[in-house]
Amino acid sequence: MFSTFIDKSSDPVKFKEWKPKIEKYKTKLKENTKKEWEVSSSLLPSDIDETPFNAIETLPKVVDKSVLDIISQPAHKLAEKLRTGNLTAVDTFVAFAKAATIANQYTNYAMEFFVDEGLKRAEELDAYFKKHGKPVGPLHGLPISLKEHYNMKNKVTHASYVSLIENVTDTDAVTIQNLYEAGAVFYVRTSGPQTLMHLDSWNNITGRPRNPHNLMLGPGGSSSGEGAVVAMMGSSMGVGSDIGGSIRAPAGFCGVWGLRPTQKRISMKNTVGAFKGFEAVVCVIGPLARYAEDIDLWMKSVIGQKPWLLDCNVVPVPWRTVGKPTPSSLKIGIIYDDGIVKPHPPIERGLTYMKKVLSEAGIEVVTVKPPRVAEAVETINKLYSSDSGKCQLDLLEKSGEPLLPLTKWALGFGKGTGLMNAGEYRDLTDTRESIKEEYFNLMNDQNISFLLSPVYNGVAPMPSTIKYWGYTALWNLIDMPNLVFPTGLFQDPKIDVVDSSYTPRSEIEKYEYGLYDDPSKFVGAPISLQLTGRRYNDEEVVKCGELISDLLSK
Amino acid sequence: MFSTFIDKSSDPVKFKEWKPKIEKYKTKLKENTKKEWEVSSSLLPSDIDETPFNAIETLPKVVDKSVLDIISQPAHKLAEKLRTGNLTAVDTFVAFAKAATIANQYTNYAMEFFVDEGLKRAEELDAYFKKHGKPVGPLHGLPISLKEHYNMKNKVTHASYVSLIENVTDTDAVTIQNLYEAGAVFYVRTSGPQTLMHLDSWNNITGRPRNPHNLMLGPGGSSSGEGAVVAMMGSSMGVGSDIGGSIRAPAGFCGVWGLRPTQKRISMKNTVGAFKGFEAVVCVIGPLARYAEDIDLWMKSVIGQKPWLLDCNVVPVPWRTVGKPTPSSLKIGIIYDDGIVKPHPPIERGLTYMKKVLSEAGIEVVTVKPPRVAEAVETINKLYSSDSGKCQLDLLEKSGEPLLPLTKWALGFGKGTGLMNAGEYRDLTDTRESIKEEYFNLMNDQNISFLLSPVYNGVAPMPSTIKYWGYTALWNLIDMPNLVFPTGLFQDPKIDVVDSSYTPRSEIEKYEYGLYDDPSKFVGAPISLQLTGRRYNDEEVVKCGELISDLLSK
What is the DSSP annotation of A93-159? Predict the structure, then answer.
């Protein structure tokens, strides 16, 4: 399933030349951080690598009540107030921008602040509302954070590659245009890992973001910064992207909602990446938010802009208005174990709890053993590295930046740098289709409405440890939409004790299961799960999420 | 652009063993042809390889008036009568089945007749109507022909490969299911060329179908039989498929309408082909018909069955109801020459004529020079053979059947059997995307509603001569929907004289332009053109076609 990757990319001598550029970039980040909004450094924990520190719990103590009153509201409720003139864009903006600044002190999630631009935009939106008596769009005045992966006109977009640190892009990503036209306010771009191919986060530019629930832990990746800032209420909603789990891992580990939509409903045009001509697995952009209903708002607003008018690869499927399902109409299949890596105790507890919640609500719940997972993982790994890693290695070698451990791991996927011919590539695509068909039939034959499964075999991980992507990547391979949601439970070392009786079935399971060696490290990590629906049934998945949200808040 | 292909597949010794199977197949075809419906052989022309014979003009002389009264009606008008009980399915069926039988005597288009099944189905539909007072669906009782390329439960599907001549498939193609559910009656499956990768037709099973307008000429391919049977009124509408021009060449050469829809709107599930795991260029199924409005009926009826419920690769975009455009709202860009192969005199006449028709109707018409055609042709050719022809060669070698000239030509596309690595394949995909983008921008920047261009550089060809696919394959590469329509003009040796002053710009042009050496050979061949719209704007393309149909019949 994995081969050993030999690092020929790192070049300390060359990298030395690039270091001043990184320093310059970081200086700009610092300069563009509003000092007056930061909390006193005395309020920051000192030993975050040794002691779990919950930055979210600390937030109410370090931000003003007037700020908290705004940022703690769901985006869809804020949007309603902004659209009806019951809240100004400027007040909303300042509250989130302050929280975003403080959030960065705790979690180091930011790549770039441009708060002055955001403020100007908020002022313009208020002026527009005053003049016309109506909002510019459904997201009028909502501060939204952006993963540093999507082009913004006249700004650098490097996608965490040092060699692109001066890459000024001359277009806006179409999705950013859609969000802007819908009324969003931009002010911060957030961190991803090197190559964007880790399920956790670390890059050679801004280093390592942290998980706000427990600063010892990783926030997940690759939309790492989005997970952290949305959880820290530093933005009303965020924008991530996912080719293997990159929206869902950060959403799950940071305890927020995250949707990986069906491919080609949201535009990927004008984004920076190292996947030239790769369409066997399609990267998708989607929202992260703190409430189920916010996900619906985001999707409805972006698709409402008809992205297909700007990007001919987007399928012209409007966002359909569907009702919240009734429990008795649903049959949910739970995947307790994918057969490759057994979930750690806290995830097992989450699944058992959800089974109880769903059953008690009158939903039919069945156990599903997912077919062909090992084959799916092998297939997607080979596809990821189908160009022998060339696109990524070219960008890495240019700066000679050191390869981080999870970069080496991901570059070793499949055949690693071994050459693959086009026939093999097509065979893998064919296998993908056959697995896709099998899941399609599984749901139809058993009349299953949705599948419920782990996001990953564990809660948020210790940094640079995640190697198994199967729980998320399976769905990228066969392109079924997924909604990650927090169960409301958190890891508790007293309850989620190590199960030392379990005998792993493989090397990868031995490694991954072994990561849960000391429950005390993971204290407070959110227990999140993943809801999966049929292709293009994004609307139904989100609405089922809203029902689950109702059930969980009872 | 093309490499030499060395034939190692043909094996006369092995093929000898397969010949009895072919004979058995042909005997069955003969047995299933209703002798009592055939015309006397004395009515058939004897020297069809030497003298142009127009079978369409002969049709009214050889079929009964009662038959002609039915088969000459547009499908959408028949459908209305069938749906309202003003015509029975049996009467309709028998008329078309008789014409289909006679059409085969002239054009040799059929692969398989199953007229008894068709009659039984028609009787059942009449019984249904009698009992329920309503039709089963929008196509209630319409006899529809099918290319022999789509699975039909318990029937052989060989897709013109001798080695598959006993391949009994156990599923129905989803599109066939959709047509059936909509009320269609099936009774004949039609011929395609060896490998389905010719723009004309010839296979080692049933030989060569002929063009009904001039039996010396080819009907085009690969939906060869569909072009012939629809033109000969042997079915109310047909079902073709197109990965390089295979709906459009037969439609154009046979003087009927043909739509190549945007990919993934009509299901390709459960079809036989040799393109395992190939998604860089996507084959699409679409209708052939004698009237513009019939195309709309076919698409609306098939998509109305929600093919995405049976095939998760179909995008759930309902067939939208759009109005026929007003001439003043349109700007049509005409491509007179793609820069690679200049169209022959009759096609030039067709373009000039259409410019006049459109302009006089008040439509703004501009000339468009299509960008990057050579690059597009090279890209798609390399993609076609990206598995080094392996899928096709495996199926050919199994029977050792002789490779026909156009098979060798197509197998020599791109790199031929030279090995391509997955990185190159991805580079080609990337080039495709960049060309797609360029045409998207071209239409948006110049505010062009539709493009009008040749279907091929000539009218229907002498058999096994077409080598240039650029006029159709360009649109497969970048997936823009196309509607082929007859201008109502026909090649006339007196008007369409050879232009010997023209100096070809390349070897391929020299060859292709040189095919129009003797205008008398092409007499009576329909002059057809191709209308192209934006991706997913199939509805708009069809409605513009209806406007053009109105203008042409004025």
Answer: HHHHHHHHHHHHHHH--EEEE-HHHHHHHHHHHHHHHHHHSS-SSTTTT-BEEEETTB--TTEE--T
DSSP labels, A22-87:
HHHHHHHHHHTS-GGGSPPGGGS-S-TTTS---HHHHHHHHS-HHHHHHHTS-HHHHHHHHHTTSS
Contact present, B281 and B383 (Cβ < 8 Å): yes
Q: Name every chain B residue with its beta carbon within 8 A of the beta carbon of A534.
A: 312
Q: Please tell me if residue B388 touches chain A, with a CB cutoff of 8 Å.
A: yes
User: Residue A113 pairs with which residues in a beta bridge?
Assistant: A188
Q: What is the ipTM of this complex?
A: 0.96
Q: Which residues of A are catalytic?
A: 147, 222, 246
Q: In this predicted structure, what is the pLDDT of residue B1?
A: 46
Average pLDDT of span A416-432 = 90
Q: How far is A387 from chain B (nearest CA, A)?
A: 4
Domain that holds residue B104: 12-38+53-552
What is B36-89 written as a DSSP string?
GGSPPGGGS-S-TTTS---HHHHHHHHS-HHHHHHHTS-HHHHHHHHHTTSS-H
CA–CA distances in Å: residue A43 to residues A11, A40, B159 = 39, 6, 73
Would you call A421 and B423 a contact, using CB atoms and an 8 Å cutoff? no
| Contact at CB, B425 and A317, closer than 8 angstroms | no
Which positions of B are catalytic? 147, 222, 246
Domain count, chain B: 1
Distance from CA of B421 to the nearest CA of A (A): 4
- Beta strands A144-147 and A188-190 are parallel
Contact B437 A278 (CB under 8 A): no
Tokens 């008036």 belong to residue: B65
- The string of pLDDT tens digits covering residues B208-247 is 999 999 999 999 999 999 999 999 999 999 999 999 999 9
**B422 vs A424, A433, A536: nearest CB:** A424
Rounded to an integer, what distance in angstroms lies between the CA atom of residue B512 and that of residue B529?
18
In a domain, B45, yes or no: no
Bridge partners of residue B452, in order along the sequence: B334, B531
CATH code assigned at B95? 3.90.1300.10
Q: Please report which confidence band the pLDDT of residue A554 belongs to, taking 50, 70 and 90 as the band edges.
A: confident
Strand residue runs (E) in B348-431: 364-367
The answer to whether position B3 is within a domain reads no
Minimal Cβ distance to A277: which of B316, B427, B535: B427
Give a yes or no: residue A256 inside a domain. yes
What does the pLDDT look like over B509-547, one tens digit per residue? Answer: 999 999 999 999 999 999 999 999 999 999 999 999 999
Are B90 and B126 a contacting pair, CB within 8 Å? yes
Residue A3 has pLDDT above 70, yes or no: no
Which residue ranges of A make up the annotated binding site? 196, 222, 243-246
CB contact under 8 A, A536 and B315: yes
Q: Is residue A50 part of a domain?
A: no
